[in-house]
Amino acid sequence: MSMPFYVSPEQVMKDRAEYARKNIARGRDLVALCCAPGVLLVADNPSRTLSKISEIYDRIAFAAVGKYNEFQMLKVAGIRSADLKGFSYSREDVSARELANAYAQTLGQVFTHEMKPYEVELLVCEVGPITDADELYHIFYDGVVIDEHGFSAIGGNNEQILTELREQYDAGASLQDAVQLGAKVLGGDDGPLAAEQLEVALLDRGRTRRTFRRIKNSELDDLLGAIAGA
């Protein structure tokens, strides 16, 4: 009788983590910035049809890097969960923290019990009445959640981007300054990314109820104009 091949649980977890990190790092980066007008999300995404940033509910946005079909499935599940709770109770009962916890449980369960982990990192953001009340939740492929303040970055180059943001971030920045900072840190040593390379959206603090809006075309060109001509 042959003995089954044995691999220690520690090695299995290590291999799964390495597999997920390696594949996530192939994706393009994304940043979230809390600024005076709201919570700005800027992604390195030249596609005009495949979005990495989406609305989840009234004051909540979802952003992701990694394998597209996997984070799209998670996004749809989050929208359905938020809609169901808002309909069953009240719209004010839907929160980014609760959604982040649900995503963390799903990703943690898959990472621990399935053969292949999800190759995704997520951001769930909620805009508040003031900058200090904004919420940013960074959810990793293994279900770990980090509550971040002011700014966040996900993707393969997130450590380098976070270093730059710590030096340059301003909580009271205007929309134009925040967009230009996002384009700059995503571009890295190659210089700021151009409008056609970016996907940009804002959770607008000045709006009531549905605050999510996309920034594109001539509006994005105008916001990037000064840095493009620098």
Mean pLDDT: 93
CATH architecture group name: 4-Layer Sandwich
**What is the global morphology?**
globular
Give helix and strand order, one letter per element, not per position: HEEEEHHEEEEHHEEH
Strand order of the largest sheet: 8-1-2-9-10
CATH C-level name: Alpha Beta
Task: Write a structural description.
The protein has 230 residues and is of the alpha+beta class. The chain has a single domain (9-223), classed as 4-Layer Sandwich (Glutamine Phosphoribosylpyrophosphate, subunit 1, domain 1), CATH 3.60.20.10. It is 40% helix and 24% strand. The protein is built from 6 helices and 10 strands, in the order H-E-E-E-E-H-H-E-E-E-E-H-H-E-E-H. The strands form 2 sheets. It has a 5-stranded antiparallel sheet. Strands 3-4-5-6-7 form a 5-stranded antiparallel sheet.
Fold topology:
Elements: H1 9-24, E1 30-35, E2 38-44, E3 53-57, E4 60-66, H2 68-88, H3 96-113, E5 120-126, E6 135-139, E7 145-148, E8 151-154, H4 158-168, H5 175-187, E9 198-204, E10 212-215, H6 217-228
Antiparallel strand pairs: 1-2, 1-8, 2-9, 3-4, 4-5, 5-6, 6-7, 9-10
Helix pairs in contact: 5-6
